[in-house]
Structures are given as structure tokens and as C-alpha cells.
């Protein structure tokens, strides 16, 4: 029993917000600084009250439509998010309710920017085991809610959005190999180190990051896990058609591609227009590239994610 991606969808809230617009809103930054250091030109920001389950709902509807399925056909819903609607119930259960699906297994995965790769791997294993047949795997984030808008070193980097895929049981392989890792020893270089206790926020409710430490770590593990996943499938990295790394920063994408000896014209890039949308970044990039008919049926695609925890992982699949 194998699993294949049979439908992809994504959703970006509101209008694109430019770097110039952020500067106009009073952030002490410039388009020149942001584009030269990160490659980011625009990001989308959710409206007040718009939640991860709302963005995930739009992406899910589009993925279900692309797969030719109804929500009631789905027996597994996994949402990767670090910006859940509530502490509980899970965003997956809220999304399930909005989709009017009753009875499917539903839960969230928390692996920050690697979340989608983690969720897709888990769904693949459920399907592989024979216990489930049709999974909806979603990455959805409203990172704008956990940004300290007075910290220019972090607030310019992120955006909101959602991406989703339908993964179905199949007798021929779609997903070829997966690799997941984490090392909690590095929890301090990227975190939102706060919690809610007795009605109060304890600690710090905003994203904090040691940018240079994250940069070095991300480049090393993205390339390593990408190579590991290709080796597990018995395919050299030169044999992949497309690489979709987590869209954190243009310089991280370029350095990863260089380390893996993958030319940049095989790398899908959306960070310039989406910013870093954490768990949503990979399915957003995948959906855009498929809709633009750059990625086509039969091609081999390597997804590689890295995020807070630290977590990292890769999925190699044939579309
Ligand atoms: N606009 C203008 N100036 C800024 C801004 C800004 N938005 N942010 C910081 N600066 C200033 C700093 O204050 C500092 O000024 P100073 O020298 O007068 O003190 C100067 O720019 C350099 O700051 P650094 O933090 O040293 O800048 P650095 O060269 O490290 O670049 C960056 C920062 C772009 C964040 C870089 O470290 C990076 O790309 N890191 C990767 C982090 C990343 O992509 N994280 C995403 C989340 S992690 C993930 O998704 C896995």
C-alpha cells in the first residue's frame, strides 16, 4: 500500500503588503535592507479575527476540489500549525467542523516550520499501515499574531497563509521516502517562550530568534536531510526534478541548493512574495508551482523543512 498526492490547494489572506508599506507603517526598516538580506519583498497578513482554521479551510476546499473529493470522503485530517486558534480543541478539529466532516481522525502537529513535512510523513505512515485511505494534510499559520512589531529583526520576515494536500492510498508509489529529525538542545535559538497560566501570559508571547545561529543551522540540516531522503529512495539529488525547501529566506534557499548541487532553476521560490509562512510555506510553494504547470505529473519533488525545536525533515515524492 502506497500513498499519492491527488489534490493540492492554498490560500493567502488579504492583499500583499510590501516592504515599503511596513516602513510607512512605522517599522524602522527599508526595502533595501529586507530584500538584500532576505529576498523578501511582500507578505500577506490575516485580518483581525481570521484564524489558522479559516485559512486552512480555504486551502482545504481547493485541495479537495483538485482531488475531486468531498470533505466527507476524508478519514484523516492533520493540521501543522504553531499558531492554533485555541489552546484546545485542536485546529484540526475546528477545521473538521468547518468542513462538516464527522468522524475522521483529526489532530494537530507542532513542529513549527517543519510542520508540513512532519504531517505529510505521519499521513503517509497511516496510509501505509492500511488504517486510513484518504488524508487531508494542511499547513496553516497566522504568524503575524506572534510577532513583536517593535522588533524589526523578526517582524519583517514572516507572513500568513495556508496550503493543503489530499493524500490517498494507491497501489503505485507517490511518496518515495521520508526523513524526520529533531534536536531539542537548540530550542533557545528560535522560540515563543511564553505560556498561559491562571489567566495570565507567563514569559514572552512573541517570536524570538538568534538570526545568525538559525541561518547556519538551517543551511546545514536542510542539505543533510535532503541528501538523506534521496539516498533512502535510491535516487541521487541530481535525479530530482524540483526542490522545495522551507521558504525562510532567499539566502538560505540558495545556500541549501548550492550544498546539494541543485541548480536554482530547479528550486521553487515564493519567499519573495509570501515571506516566511512557517508550516504553510512548503504547500503554498507546491501549489503555486503545480498551478503554474512548472511541476508536472510524473516528476520527482523533494520537500525539505526546518524549524523551531529544532526540527527538520524531508519528503521525496513523485506527483
Ligand atoms: N531593517 C533595517 N535594519 C535592521 C533590520 C530591519 N528589518 N533588522 C535588523 N536590522 C539591523 C540591526 O539592528 C543591526 O544594526 P546594528 O548593526 O546597527 O546593530 C543590523 O541590521 C544587522 O543585524 P543582524 O541581526 O546582525 O543582521 P544579520 O546580518 O544577521 O541578518 C537576518 C538578520 C536577515 C535575520 C539573518 O540573520 C537571517 O537571515 N537569519 C535567518 C533567520 C531566518 O530566516 N529565520 C526565519 C525563521 S527560522 C526558520 O524558518 C527555520
From TrEMBL:
SUPFAM superfamilies: Thiolase-like. One of its GO terms (cellular component) is cytoplasm. Its EC number is 2.3.1.180. Residues 230-318 form the Beta-ketoacyl-[acyl-carrier-protein] synthase III C-terminal domain. One of its GO terms (molecular function) is beta-ketoacyl-acyl-carrier-protein synthase III activity. One of its GO terms (biological process) is fatty acid biosynthetic process. It comes from the Bacteria. The active site is at 113, 246, 276. Pathway: Lipid metabolism; fatty acid biosynthesis. Residues 107-184 form the Beta-ketoacyl-[acyl-carrier-protein] synthase III N-terminal domain. It is found in: Cytoplasm. The last Arg residue of the ACP-binding site is essential for the weak association between ACP/AcpP and FabH. Catalyzes the condensation reaction of fatty acid synthesis by the addition to an acyl acceptor of two carbons from malonyl-ACP. Catalyzes the first condensation reaction which initiates fatty acid synthesis and may therefore play a role in governing the total rate of fatty acid production. Possesses both acetoacetyl-ACP synthase and acetyl transacylase activities. Its substrate specificity determines the biosynthesis of branched-chain and/or straight-chain of fatty acids. Homodimer. This is Beta-ketoacyl-[acyl-carrier-protein] synthase III.
Amino acid at each position: 500500500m502506497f500513498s499519492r498526492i491527488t489534490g493540492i490547494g492554498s490560500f493567502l489572506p488579504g492583499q500583499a503588503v510590501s516592504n515599503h508599506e511596513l516602513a510607512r507603517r512605522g517599522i524602522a526598516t527599508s526595502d533595501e535592507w529586507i530584500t538584500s538580506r532576505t529576498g523578501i519583498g511582500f507578505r500577506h497578513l490575516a485580518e483581525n479575527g481570521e484564524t489558522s482554521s479559516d485559512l486552512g479551510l480555504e486551502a482545504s476546499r481547493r485541495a479537495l476540489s483538485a482531488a475531486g473529493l468531498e470533505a466527507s470522503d476524508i478519514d484523516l485530517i492533520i493540521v501543522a500549525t504553531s499558531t492554533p486558534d485555541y489552546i484546545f480543541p485542536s485546529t484540526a478539529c475546528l477545521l473538521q467542523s468547518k468542513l462538516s466532516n464527522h468522524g475522521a481522525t483529526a489532530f494537530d502537529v507542532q513542529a513549527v516550520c517543519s510542520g508540513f513535512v512532519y504531517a505529510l510523513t505521519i499521513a503517509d505512515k497511516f496510509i501505509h499501515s492500511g488504517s486510513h485511505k484518504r488524508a487531508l494534510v494542511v499547513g496553516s499559520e497566522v504568524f503575524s499574531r506572534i510577532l513583536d512589531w517593535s522588533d524589526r529583526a523578526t517582524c519583517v520576515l514572516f507572513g500568513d497563509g495556508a496550503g493543503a494536500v489530499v493524500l490517498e492510498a494507491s497501489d503505485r508509489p507517490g511518496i518515495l521516502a521520508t526523513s524526520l529529525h529533531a534536536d531539542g538542545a537548540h530550542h533557545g535559538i528560535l522560540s515563543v517562550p511564553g505560556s498561559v497560566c491562571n489567566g495570565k501570559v507567563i514569559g514572552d508571547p512573541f517570536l524570538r530568534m538568534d538570526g545568525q545561529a538559525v541561518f547556519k543551522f538551517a543551511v546545514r540540516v536542510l542539505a543533510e536531510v535532503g541528501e538523506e531522503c534521496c539516498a533512502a529512495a535510491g535516487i541521487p539529488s541530481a535525479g530530482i526534478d524540483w526542490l522545495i525547501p522551507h521558504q525562510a529566506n532567499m539566502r538560505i534557499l540558495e545556500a541549501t541548493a548550492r550544498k546539494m548541487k541543485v541548480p536554482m532553476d530547479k528550486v521553487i521560490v515564493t519567499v519573495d512574495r509570501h515571506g516566511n509562512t512557517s508550516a504553510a510555506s512548503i504547500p503554498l510553494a507546491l501549489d503555486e508551482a503545480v498551478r503554474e504547470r512548472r511541476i508536472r505529473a510524473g516528476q520527482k519533488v523533494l520537500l525539505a523543512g526546518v524549524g523551531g525545536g529544532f526540527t527538520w525533515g524531508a519528503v521525496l515524492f513523485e506527483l
